[in-house]
């Protein structure tokens, strides 16, 4: 039977702070037969600069020392900080099996005033050189260590990539040549053309991804490579890539080469594609093809680091796509099926609206679509993100319910850093999306809660219980949903694939106290079952189980 890495939750010891110890383990432990299924994955999304600062010595590069608006400068988070948290078991304790973090390439050096105050490219989405890492985040060695450490814990790495635009132009960051980028017109979003062949915002040059003509490399990039002593190597690699693929030397193909180097150099398991609807869909099909080739080669050269049968994963951010649209995004004058152009899954912007419905209405809808029309594909649900100013529970008034809805809903779950600790998304004095991007609130795990609100520690424990249940049971996210009782609200999920089978029973909003549940036909007599929320074992006798709950939640699985 296949072995995969799973967290050993019993050994987690919670202390707090970015530099605190969370576990005494250095590696994930292998247990039997819980297959990884993307529909049941728990993705943890973080901004590298805002998560954990393990090395203050790398906090300043390129003389980025000017004063910025609140939360719009570099604050020190780095690759080493992420690695530290993997080793300490923080992600294991949440049942997280995929890490997605913001783009890692070298950012613009200068300062931008985008109307909300002076800003540096701390977030990673303002590329200056796709062939270099951003030194504020760390080194090549540190990124390799991050990826290999994650793999030892059974965690896949989903790398955020940008192909749509360069970083803004500043006094220190030149405009790319005109055959590479356009600086207008601004996008109107009322047709396909006015969404793709345009600039998202002012001073964000748009890559001419429609071009197929031969294009020379920007002089400033060649000069940079020469100063850094790697001009010949970079040109030789490009020669080899274009000879192997037969592509013309057009902007999109240069970028595809540079992006898939993240697979060749570090062994990342997938890409989250930024601004996907602002690029011709055929470009994504080419990226997928080359990514799969690079991933296959990496697995051959690094046997044993990841499962042999694992496929490359491509997640698309098609802004405002919702699961109800199934395959198509509608531009008004044209519909595009992104799944048919390389994407394994799309971010589901509809979830935050569905999360206001009753549990059964939401769960049955998602199960029906994901086990019906979208059976071969997936969606990634979220309650908050780095750029959604109107998320579910913006003011963290329902952090427990947010976890319940996200982690028990069919489909892939995306935890945005701090969802699990009720990190504030409303920072006084921060303008725009900066308010969504405060530093991870490690210190809150030591503090008390507000009046009538759970503490950060209590929120974290709730998310951990749900996350552990999800991680150990593919039926939670990937199974077929069926309500078995409306009052009390009980449902089962069943899943099977390639010789594996899984069944879970869940109760929500139950009255506190003892419940005797009829599980005849669900679990066999004599079965020993785990109730994950109270962390107790129960036995099936005469088709019944007896469970005490103080929380009103029952999470039952074998």
What does this entry look like structurally?
It is globular and about 75 Å long. The strands form eight sheets. It has an eight-stranded parallel β-barrel. A six-stranded antiparallel sheet has the order 19-20-21-26-23-24. 25% of the residues lie in helices and 21% in strands. It has two domains: 3-478, TIM Barrel (Alpha-Beta Barrel); 489-557, Golgi alpha-mannosidase II (Immunoglobulin-like), CATH 2.60.40. Mean pLDDT is 93; it is low at 1-15 and 21-32. The chain has helices at 79-87, 90-93, 140-152, 193-196, 219-227, 231-245, 251-266, 281-301, 351-354, 359-370, 399-408, 456-472, 475-478; strands at residues 3-6, 29-32, 42-46, 98-101, 105-107, 112-113, 118-119, 127-133, 156-161, 181-182, 206-207, 270-273, 313-316, 328-330, 335-337, 345-347, 378-382, 412-416, 480-485, 489-497, 500-508, 513-518, 528-531, 536-539, 544-549, 554-557. With 558 residues, it is of the alpha/beta class. The chain is built from 13 helices and 26 strands. The longest helix is centred in the middle third of the chain and has 21 residues, at 281-301.
């Amino acid at each position: 039977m296949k072995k995969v890495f799973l967290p050993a939750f019993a050994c987690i010891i919670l202390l707090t702070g970015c530099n605190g110890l969370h576990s005494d383990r250095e590696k994930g432990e292998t247990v039997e037969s819980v297959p990884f299924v993307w529909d049941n994955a728990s993705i943890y999304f973080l901004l590298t600069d805002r998560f954990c600062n393990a090395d203050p010595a790398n906090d300043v590069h390129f003389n980025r020392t000017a004063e910025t608006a609140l939360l719009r400068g570099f604050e020190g988070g780095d690759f080493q900080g992420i690695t530290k948290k993997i080793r300490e078991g923080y992600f294991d304790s949440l049942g997280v099996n995929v890490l997605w973090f913001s783009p890692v390439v070298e950012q613009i050096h200068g300062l931008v005033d985008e109307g909300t105050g002076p800003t540096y490219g701390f977030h990673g989405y303002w590329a200056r050189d796709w062939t270099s890492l951003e030194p504020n985040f760390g080194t090549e060695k540190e990124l390799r260590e991050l990826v290999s450490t994650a793999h030892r814990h059974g965690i896949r790495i989903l790398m955020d990539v940008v192909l749509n635009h360069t970083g803004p132009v500043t006094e220190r960051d030149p405009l790319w040549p005109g055959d590479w980028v356009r600086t207008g017109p601004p996008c109107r979003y009322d047709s396909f053309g006015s969404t793709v062949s345009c600039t998202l915002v002012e001073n964000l040059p748009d890559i001419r991804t429609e071009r197929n003509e031969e294009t020379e490399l920007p002089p400033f990039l060649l000069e940079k490579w020469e100063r850094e002593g790697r001009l010949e190597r970079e040109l030789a690699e490009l020669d080899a890539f274009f000879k192997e693929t037969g592509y013309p030397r057009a902007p999109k193909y240069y970028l595809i080469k540079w992006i898939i180097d993240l697979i060749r150099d570090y062994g990342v398991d997938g890409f989250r594609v930024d601004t996907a609807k602002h690029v011709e869909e055929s470009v994504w099909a080419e990226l997928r093809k080359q990514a799969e080739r690079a991933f296959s080669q990496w697995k051959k050269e690094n046997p044993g680091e990841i499962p042999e049968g694992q496929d490359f994963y491509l997640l698309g951010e098609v802004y405002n796509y919702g699961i109800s649209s199934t395959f198509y995004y509608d531009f008004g004058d044209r519909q595009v099926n992104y799944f048919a152009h390389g994407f394994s899954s799309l971010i589901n912007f509809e979830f935050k609206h569905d999360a206001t419905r009753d549990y059964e209405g939401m769960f049955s809808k998602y199960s029906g679509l994901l086990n019906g029309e979208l059976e071969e594909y997936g969606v990634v649900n979220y309650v908050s993100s780095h750029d959604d100013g109107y998320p579910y529970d913006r003011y963290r008034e329902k952090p427990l319910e947010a976890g319940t809805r996200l982690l028990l809903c069919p489909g892939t779950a995306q935890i945005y850093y701090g969802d699990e600790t009720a990190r504030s998304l409303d920072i006084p004095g921060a303008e725009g999306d900066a308010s969504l991007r405060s530093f991870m609130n490690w210190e809150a795990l030591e503090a008390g809660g507000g009046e009538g609100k759970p503490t950060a520690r209590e929120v974290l424990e709730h998310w951990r219980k749900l996350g552990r249940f999800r991680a150990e049971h593919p039926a939670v996210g990937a199974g077929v949903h069926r309500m078995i009782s409306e009052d009390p609200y009980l449902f089962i999920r069943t899943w099977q694939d390639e010789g594996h089978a899984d069944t879970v029973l869940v109760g929500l909003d139950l009255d506190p106290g003892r419940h005797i549940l009829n599980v005849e036909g669900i679990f066999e007599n004599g079965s020993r079952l785990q109730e994950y929320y109270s962390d107790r074992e129960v036995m099936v006798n005469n088709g019944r189980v007896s469970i005490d709950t103080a929380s009103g939640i029952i999470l039952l699985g074998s």
